[in-house]
């Protein structure tokens, strides 16, 4: 597959390397008459919600069923090109045919009855800091969650349910994984200890049509929606075809690999896993929960 032209400037690449995220503006059309607006309009009836009665809106996050999808390469070519650029080329993607759908992750009024908790180490009762990936064993070089994107179908405003991110968390999470080449179960991470090693906390506000690319080892969490402005987003996970490599002879590291090396404070790293790469089934997770009871 042909490599799309680069869309991120050297300054944007450097921002990603230093902070673990970058906002790609105006990636797809929104507003009246667009596919996005049709999907959002249809979601109200599909979910049985009254658009004109905010008091009836759910106070928990809502994941909607996917009934349609689009090719990101065609629908949002700037977003697609940015993904490929940060991951080091289309040949490194497990599946270059990235697709987005109308399975919105919606926040209508989560935490609206609680006092506002600003970005910081403490969470409100409905969310905890974490990295995604409950379906695989985690290793420093794990390919499963190559990059995590936030698709902003609607505007993400202050106190309106925007994702909280901790840009300086990549180092602590990378060190934790580097010290455990035998692998880490998704429920083994000491989230509270890791987040308290951080000092940079941000609210990922953005406009409709924007795409926020974040490093997979960056801690993040959901937030409250006190504005009662419906927030529609998706998480877009793109996997690598092969495990990450931190000692490339040619130095052709992806931005994802470079972030980890910077977080560890090294130029290269000889890393080998000691466990077994495996994807976790529902039975695996249920057995583990039962063992803890």
Write the topology of this structure.
Elements: H1 10-19, E1 21-24, H2 35-46, E2 62-63, E3 69-71, H3 72-75, H4 77-87, E4 99-101, E5 105-107, E6 147-152, E7 164-166, H5 170-178, H6 191-195, E8 202-203, E9 211-214, E10 219-221, E11 231-238, H7 255-264, H8 282-292
Antiparallel strand pairs: 1-9, 2-5, 3-4, 5-11, 6-9, 6-11, 7-8, 7-10
Helix pairs in contact: 1-7, 5-7
Overall mean pLDDT stands at 95
CATH top-level class: Mainly Beta
- CATH architecture, by name, is Sandwich
Q: In which range does the helix fraction lie?
A: 10-25%
Sheet with the most strands, sense and barrel status: 6 strands, antiparallel
What structural keywords apply?
single chain, about 290 residues, alpha+beta, Jelly Rolls, 6-stranded antiparallel beta sheet, 3-stranded antiparallel beta sheet, 11 strands
In short:
25% of the residues lie in helices and 14% in strands. By secondary structure, the protein is α+β, with helices and mostly antiparallel strands.
Describe the structure.
- A six-stranded antiparallel sheet has the order 1-9-6-11-5-2.
- It has one domain: Sandwich (Jelly Rolls).
- α1 packs across α7 (about 255-265) and α5 (about 170-180) packs across α7.
- It has helices at about 10-20, 35-45, 70-75, 75-85, 170-180, 190-195, 255-265, 280-290; strands spanning about 20-25, 60-65, 70, 100, 105, 145-150, 165, 200-205, 210-215, 220, 230-240.
- The protein is of the alpha+beta class and about 290 residues long.
- The radius of gyration is 19 Å and the shape is globular.
């Amino acid at each position: 597959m042909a490599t799309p032209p680069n869309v991120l400037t050297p300054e944007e690449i450097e921002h990603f390397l230093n902070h673990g995220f970058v906002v790609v503006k105006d990636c797809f059309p929104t507003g009246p008459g667009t596919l996005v607006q049709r999907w959002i309009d249809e979601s109200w009836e599909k979910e049985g919600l009254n658009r004109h009665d905010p008091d009836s809106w759910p106070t928990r996050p809502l994941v909607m069923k996917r009934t349609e999808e689009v090719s990101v390469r065609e629908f949002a070519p700037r977003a697609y090109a940015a993904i490929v650029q940060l991951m080091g080329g289309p040949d490194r993607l497990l599946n270059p045919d990235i697709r987005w759908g109308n399975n919105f992750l919606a926040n209508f009024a989560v935490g609206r009855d609680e006092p506002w908790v600003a970005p910081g180490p403490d969470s409100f009762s409905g969310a905890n800091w974490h990295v995604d990936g409950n379906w695989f064993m985690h290793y420093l070089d794990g390919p499963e969650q190559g990059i995590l994107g936030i698709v902003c179908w609607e505007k993400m405003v202050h106190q309106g349910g925007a994702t909280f991110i901790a840009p300086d968390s990549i180092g602590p999470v990378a060190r934790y994984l580097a010290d455990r080449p035998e692998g880490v179960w998704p429920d083994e991470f000491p989230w509270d200890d890791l987040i308290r090693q951080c000092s940079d906390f941000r609210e990922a506000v953005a406009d409709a049509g924007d795409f926020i690319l974040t490093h997979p080892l960056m801690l993040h969490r959901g937030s409250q929606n006190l504005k009662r402005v419906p927030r529609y987003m998706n998480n877009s996970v793109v996997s690598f075809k092969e495990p990450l490599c931190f000692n490339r002879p040619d130095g052709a590291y992806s931005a994802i690999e470079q972030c980890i090396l910077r977080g560890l404070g090294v130029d290269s790293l000889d890393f080998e896993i000691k466990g077994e790469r495996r994807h976790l089934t529902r039975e695996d997770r249920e057995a583990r929960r039962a063992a803890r009871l």
